[in-house]
Amino acid sequence: MRHLLALPLFVFALSAQEPLKLMAPEAKRDAAGTVTLTSATPGVVIRYSIDGSDPGPKGGPYLAPVILPGGGTVKARAYSEDRKVKSELFEEKFDAMSGAKLLPATLVPCTQDRDWPIYDWAKRHAVVAKIAADRKASLVFIGDSITQMFGGEPHDRSQPGKDVWEKFYAKRNVANLGFGYDYLENTLWRLRHGELDGAKAKVVVMHIGTNNAGKNTPEEIALGVGALLDEIRQRQPQAHIVLMGIFPRGPKLDAMRTKLDTTNKLLAQFASAGRVTFFDIGAKFLQPDGTITREVMGDFLHPTARGYEIWAEAIEPLLVKLLGEAE
Q1: Domain 121-323 belongs to what architecture?
Q2: What's the whole-model pTM score?
Q3: Which residue in 312, 293, 313, 295 sits closest to 304, CA to CA?
Q4: 286 Cβ contact list (under 8 Å, min separation 6)
Q5: Could you read off the pLDDT of 58-82 as tens digits, one per residue?
Q6: In Å, how far are 120, 131, 168, 196 from 114, measured between CA atoms?
Q7: At 287, is the secondary structure helix, strand, or coil?
Q8: Domain limits of the chain?
Q9: CATH superfamily of 27-102
Q10: Residue 309, CA atoms < 13 Å, CB-side half-sphere
Q11: Which tops the pLDDT comparison, 18 or 303?
């Protein structure tokens, strides 16, 4: 009988506990325009945004101060580690500092975690930075989900191009710095926080920008790509960069395709003899009538195994040449 009485008393004690309450973050900006976020609650993860959105459980984690001399609005919430408990919203608008101007979003580095729980953006950042450094990678791929799903470690999401990757790159000293759902500004954050620093790259292949096409102009995308090229040159000055034209998307010609064509014309201007090769293979994914089949891109955006084979075969002669390999 005593055991029967103990159970409801125990349940009552649990129900009487105070719910977990997290303190909202706070922010300070220094004279250089650097915004630091803190929370009075220990052990939380601060998730923030600078694009006006409310940072939810898939919001970018605060991993380093945010550089905002040109001003902008910072929103932030503190989250428990399991992302189930959140604080009240913090929001503050910062004006542009003297002599600074508001920059396009593609030039303001920030984190993201939009593909969680498929993969954890911050954890992948730490892992791939270590891979690139440990291997002293001589061939590096940089990009978004299109690159991440090509293959290579860590295998933290589906990779329809895995067999193609193994065929072409397993014997090479390679690192895959592709991150699903990355905008240009997210990739810029990664490069500015050491992801490429440990490599010894002879060649960097970069395909990036399609995710920005839904929210930025071709000119803004080109500015972001230019900033990434500058980061690569600064951190791997010996590397030759293969800048891929943004792949076509959608089953047939439409406004998005036209926008990407315009963007690629701007990206082509980054070509520089001996330093940057602009390589547009978009036509290879298309049928004679301009359509894309599901055999090549299952969702008309991400390549299938056949699509990745098209990519690998197209760039292979160039890679052999740039890596100094015997043909």
Answers
A1: 3-Layer(aba) Sandwich (3.40)
A2: 0.93
A3: 295
A4: 248, 292
A5: 999 999 999 999 999 999 999 999 9
A6: 9, 23, 30, 22
A7: coil
A8: 27-102, 121-323
A9: Immunoglobulins (2.60.40.10)
A10: 6
A11: 303
